[in-house]
């Protein structure tokens, strides 16, 4: 027993220490890549000379003025992104480029396929850059659409004010609270009630409501990239990303206060999909206890490995392998094309196959619950 405890402590200590080292490496890597001079726009417009004047970058081709360059940043679905704007001498955008992003690859590809970026050339620098006003979002990539619009506004307005003394419109930052946000809030409240009072019927109602709303309609399942964003400090504005705050921050608060994992128990749309598949097949194989004892540790290992890569790279989406978004949109990359069918086939024969043996989100929440229990037990011992 003592040897097992010592072994467990050593493994946990190594895992925690390695993550701290990875975080330090990622944060201390201050080497900046010259994104601007190596950008597509510089090559396309044959810009070979730039100079800084009054806080702006002026671009030349030989001795001929091409225009003004500025970069803007904002928070997207996966974390920070940077947009470069090239404007002419008349106050219009020549072209724009997404210089850096940590978005899910499928979302950026969707924007390109839907010609989202074609909206920016010829826009006036002091336009509003507002989604549903003078910028059209792409369905299924609304958060990324809005983030790029905000970054483009920051860059464009910088040129407008520094180089043209243009008046800038008062757009404000209002709360994005529509039907979807209302439905997610309602689902979360009902899921909390179902979890707290162990109401099975209400739990199934919230799970399959989430399957439709959070899964198919807005495709906003919590993934490891959400948790990584929080660790890295890439926290989105609550006014524009209320669903993120309700699902992730709301669940973390309930775990902290009550030790209950509302999301995995009564909300996760992929969990609902697995339940549905298992009910359809009517099969529920039991894995041998000796094998199950080792497989059940897989999510923790995958969580550690994924976080290690994410913290070193400072890219929240780099190692997020879950097939959640792909399941509801059929847009995925790389290993997701293998994990999704494997998960679905496994769910036909083993209840909650992915949740038990692969999910890093569930592993994260279970780890937090375990930490909370240990802290409470220590407090009881000290006060006992």
| H-E string | HHEEEEEHHHHHHHHHHHHHH
Number of strands: 5
Fraction in helix = 55-70%
Strand content: 5-15%
Radius of gyration: 24 Å
Shape: elongated
Secondary-structure map with pairings?
Blueprint: H1 2-28, H2 40-44, E1 49-53, E2 56-61, E3 64-75, E4 80-87, E5 93-100, H3 105-113, H4 142-163, H5 179-196, H6 200-217, H7 224-232, H8 242-258, H9 262-266, H10 269-281, H11 289-295, H12 298-313, H13 324-329, H14 336-349, H15 353-357, H16 360-383
Helix pairs in contact: 1-12, 5-6, 5-8, 6-10, 10-14, 12-16
How would you describe what is shown here?
It is a single chain. The model has no long low-confidence stretch (mean pLDDT about 90). The chain has helices at about 1-30, 40-45, 105-115, 140-165, 180-195, 200-215, 225-230, 240-260, 260-265, 270-280, 290-295, 300-315, 325-330, 335-350, 355, 360-384; strands at about 50-55, 55-60, 65-75, 80-85, 95-100. A 5-stranded antiparallel β-sheet has the order 1-2-3-4-5. The protein folds into 2 domains: about 40-165, Sufe protein. Chain: A (Alpha-Beta Complex), CATH 3.90.1010; about 175-384, no CATH class. With about 375 residues, the chain is of the alpha+beta class. The protein is built from 16 helices and 5 strands. One of its GO terms (cellular component) is membrane. This is FMN-binding domain-containing protein.
